[in-house]
Structure formats: structure tokens, C-alpha cells
Amino acid sequence: MDSRSSSEAHRSPLALVALLLLACSLAGCARVRPDERALLADPAMTFGGEGTPGAHEAHVLSNREAAFGGAEARGGGCGCN
Amino acid sequence: MQLNRATLVALCLMSLPAWASAQDRAELDTTVTLFRESGGPLEMTVITPSVDIAAAAGEHVEVRGGWEADIVSGASVAIVDAPGEVDAVTSATRLDDLRHTARFGMTFLGQRTDLTVAYQYGHESDYRSHSFDLNARAELAERNTVFSVGYARGFDRVCDLRQESLAAPERQRLPGSGGCFAGADDRIARDLELHTLRGAWSQIWSPILVTQLGASAQVLNGFQVNPYRSVWLGNAAAQEHHPDNRARYAADLGARIYLRRLDAILQPSVRVHRDTWDIRSITGKLSYVQLVGERGRFQVTGRYYQQTSATFFSDDYGLRPRGQYFTGDRELSAMRSYLASGGFEYQALGEDLEGERALQTLQLVARGGFLFSRFPDYRYGTAEVPNGRSFFVTLQVDMHF
User: Fold this and answer.
1) ipTM of the assembly?
2) Which of A19, A64, B74, B384 makes the best surface tag, with the fewest CB within 10 Å?
3) Is the pLDDT of residue B114 over 60?
4) Quick one: how far is CA B392 from the chain centroid?
5) d(CA A70, nearest CA chain B) in Å
6) How many C-beta atoms lie closer than 10 Å to residue B111's C-beta?
7) DSSP string of B109-176?
């Protein structure tokens, strides 16, 4: 691998880190006061707010796709294959 | 027979009476899901009832426990690509299985942070699993920013024939679960260990916009085969043989957008995944939640999923072998799936009602969906996959005290 392709290989993760740091900096500028959060309190505005029905749907899909998982350390079982 | 008894159990669980104490906050959630996949001689029915209880033990501790079961009944292909003039799909064999899962967790609540520890145990006639989960969460910048990080460790044991001294092409599939974890001389328990690390950054950008960026990594080491499935290798059938090691990486980005004029919420998300078996996938999902009055809401969801095949996948190992590994798992081939689902929630009893009572809120949820899966490179001999269509229905009763 020559020096130019080596630098290109390192550029991609560095660019990603820089982008994340920029995003975090911008996040510091976002200020929503508690009195403005009425809409944000709705369960549909939260991640994971689908509760048990959402977990059951995820369970169905996890037995039907190779790329599912990674959110929990539960290997298998169910016998659903 | 087992399925009829299971249906009765599920219906009884759905009608559990409220009994938790009214002194502290508590929640009782009973949910049941029916999943059905069928086509040609192949079919799979799974009923999943679950009960979860959570209670606040003082101001800084929350305790939760739960139980879930998978009641499985169906017919699947035992020898993939079996030769003969008869359609290979007709070699389907019946299976019935029951899996119980018990879970327990505690959350320690601070002003801006919380820490959750959890444990789950899974029990099947041919499978045992233990998993431990640790998750930490911190709110920063006046609660506009949330970081979470978690680690989970799993210890699974899978029943198999005692045949580890045989070469992979000579191993036979497990004929049944009889003798598993019972000390039978011809049965052995194979280990599977899992490490999972995940992190997420949630950000409130405005009163109507929240985003979340997440990433996860998982390492699996051990037996990752369906012991009941074998593959025709050209001159004999052998139990499928997968690598012992697999590392998976995923990243996801989602948003929650409140549409003021419609009084609705839009939920777009995208997820990408890659693993060391060279399976790469992308998932796109869009949900629309419409609020209906003070107590109701309905939701519609569309989801698209696409993946490439594992590096060792072949549709015909007799003609096109792919090294030392071989699989009959259609979910390790290239595939696409389309999910369309919808549901309705209704709060039958709300906190706005006056008067003292133990039951503060009662919410009813009904959801259902259709899943269409396509396997362009996977066949049972010359037969296309007949059971790529499935549906599911979920009913939930959620009570707060």
C-alpha cells in the first residue's frame, strides 16, 4: 500500500470522528426549556417508547433476519427456525 | 394438542386481574403475540405471551420482573436440498417446542443519571441461556442530551449429538430433543458465549425534534448451528457447519418529529449492519403515529430490509462448495423483506379522572402486521421458498397503579 492510499485509509475514520465532534458541539447549542417540552413527553417522541408490543415485533424479526441482534446478549433458543 | 393448551394459557394470562399495591407506583403489563408463517407444506406458528411487572421501591430504585414464553408448532425442512424426484420441500418434519424466559432487573435513579442491572434466563428442552445486562444513562445540558452505554454478557448451551470427534461432513443432525440435558450418553451440551457493547446519543434539537444515533458491536463464540438441520453435500447429508466465531457491527440513526398541524408524529430510522461472515444489511423504517382525541392513537409502519449472503453460503454444495463451512439456513442467504404493520392504542382509564382508586391508568393496544420475505438465491432443491409470507397480531393490556 503506498503512502497516498494509506493516508486515504486513515482519512475516513478521522472524518467520522470530526463529524461526530462537530455534531456534539452543535448539540450544546440546542436548548429546550422545560416549559417547552410538553410535546416531547409523549411516548411516541421517545426512543423505545413502543414498549412490549415493539419488543415482541423485534423478537419476530430477530428470528427471520441474519442482521438482527446486537442490542442484547441473548443468543437464540425459541426454536422458531 | 400443545397449541390448543397454549392458546388457553395465553388467554388466561391476558385476563389477569390487577392486584398490585396502591401505595407505590407500579405497572402490570400483559401482552400476547401470535405469529403465523405458512406456504406449501411448511408452516410455523408461535404464540408469545408475556407478563411484566415494574414497581418503584422508594424514590431512587425501580424493580422489574417478567416472564415470557414461545410456544412453537410447525413443520420445517430437516434436510435441505435432499435429492430425489419428489420436491425437496415435502421432506418437512413436524416440530413442537416450548421456551420459557424469566427476567429480573433493577434501576438505580439519580438526578441526572441512572444505572440498570438485569438478568434473564431462558429454558427450552434443548437450549439454556443466561444473560447479564448492565446499562448506564446520563442526561446533560439541561436534559437536552442523553448518553447511554451498555454491556451484556450471554452464556448459552445448545444440545447436540455427541459427535465432536467426527469431521464436519460426517456429523448427523439432532433427531429430537429427547435426552438433552438429561445425561444421555449420546447427547452433549455445546457452549455459545456472547459479548455485546452498545452506545447511544439522544439529542433534543427543538420542542418538536429528537434524534438518536446508536452503535453496537457483538462477538459470538461457540456453537451457532441449528442442530436439527442438515444439508445435502452431493453424496450425503450432514449437519450444517458454521464458523465458531462471529463479530457483528451495527449503527442506527432515528428521529422523532412532531407534526403540529396534523397532531401526529413521524418516526424515520435507518440501520446498517455488517459482520465477519460478510453479511451486510440495511434497514429503512418509517412510522406515522396519529393522535386521536385525548385517549387514542393509531400507527402505521413500513419497513424495508435487505441483506447479502454469508460468505460460505451456497444454494447447492454438491455443485458449488464454499470451503469447509456449509449452511441450510435461508436467513444466511441474500434476502429482502417488506413489513407493513399498524395498530391502535386506547387509554380506557386515565389519570385525569377524579376520585381515589388503585388503578390509575388502563391502556389497551392492538397491533398487527404482514411480512413478505424474498430469497432470490435460496431453493429447496429446485423448489422456491414457499413460506415467505407471514403475519403477526399483538394484544396488550397495560395497567398503572
Assistant:
1) 0.86
2) A19
3) yes
4) 13
5) 5
6) 7
7) E-SSEEEEEEEEEEEETTEEEEEEEEEEEEEETTTTEEEEEEEEEEEEEEEEES-TTS-GGGPPPP--
Determine the Cα–Cα distance for residues B219 and B194; give it in Å rounded to an integer. Answer: 6
Those residues with Cβ within 8 angstroms of residue B19's Cβ, 6 or more apart along the chain or in another chain = none
Single-letter amino acid, residue A13: P
Give Cβ neighbours of residue B373 (< 8 Å, ≥ 6 apart).
A64, B335, B336, B337, B385, B388, B389, B390
pLDDT category at B21 given cuts 50, 70, 90 is very low
Nearest one of B211, B209, B364, B150 to A47, comparing CA atoms: B211
Q: Which residues in B57-91 belong to E strands, given as ranges?
A: 61-77, 79-80
- Residue A46: closest CA among chain B residues belongs to which residue? B256
Query: Is the CB of B265 less than 8 angstroms away from the CB of A44?
Result: yes
Does the pLDDT of residue B84 top 80, yes or no?
Answer: no
Of the candidates B376, B258, B126, B18, the residue with the CA atom closest to the CA atom of residue A43: B258
The Cα B358–Cα B363 span in angstroms is 15
Helix/strand/coil for A9: helix
Q: Tell me which chain B residues have a C-beta less than 8 angstroms from the C-beta of A58.
A: none
What are the pLDDT digits (tens) for B121-161?
A: 999 999 999 999 999 999 988 889 999 999 999 999 999 99
The pTM score is 0.86
- Whether A74 has a pLDDT exceeding 60, the answer reads no
Cell of residue B81, nine digits: 436440498
Sheet strands side by side (includes B230-232): B79-80, B230-232, B237-239
| pLDDT above 50 for B18 | no
Q: What is the pLDDT of residue A48?
A: 82
Instruction: Report how far apart the first and last C-alpha atoms of chain A are (Å, whole number).
Output: 44
**Cα(B49)–Cα(B66) distance, rounded to whole angstroms?**
11
In A, minimum Cα distance to B191 occurs at A75
